[in-house]
Amino acid sequence: MVIAWIHNFVSEQIQKSILYVKTAQKAWRQLEKTFNVANGSRKYKIEKEMVETRQSEKSILEYYTEMKGLWEVKNEMNVLPPITTLTPKVDAFLGTLVK
């Protein structure tokens, strides 16, 4: 049932990439891997949109909502992945943060 919901809420092209995945969890993980990557060109596009966005004929509410949406997308791209394993490199990095 959940996998059907996922299929209904993605575009047809994206749907094809998860069409033969057996479980909703695997489909979700595959989508997450594909679209959770914060690449430089995507960040550039968002920042360019932010710079070029003007209020023009929009109300303050419409302008603010548009800008807030862009800020949220940009902020999501800057989220660091959670630390799940404490390796020597991670331990050294955390040590530098404490100092």
The N- to C-terminal Cα distance equals 50 Å
Share of residues in helices: 55-70%
The total of beta strands comes to 0
Shape call:
flat
Largest sheet entry:
none
Distinct helical segment count: 6
Mean pLDDT: 83
What does this 3D model show about the protein?
The protein has helices spanning 2-8, 12-17, 24-35, 40-52, 60-77, 88-98. It is built from six helices and no strands. The protein is mainly α. α1 (2-8) runs parallel beside α3 (24-35). The chain folds into two domains: 1-36, no CATH class; 38-80, no CATH class. The mean pLDDT is 83.
What is this structure's SSE topology?
Elements lengths: L1 H7 L3 H6 L6 H12 L4 H13 L7 H18 L10 H11 L1
Helix pairs in contact: 1-3, 4-5
Brief overview:
By secondary structure, the protein is mainly alpha-helical. The protein has helices at residues 2-8, 12-17, 24-35, 40-52, 60-77, 88-98.
Core attributes:
single chain; 99 residues; mainly alpha; 2 domains; flat
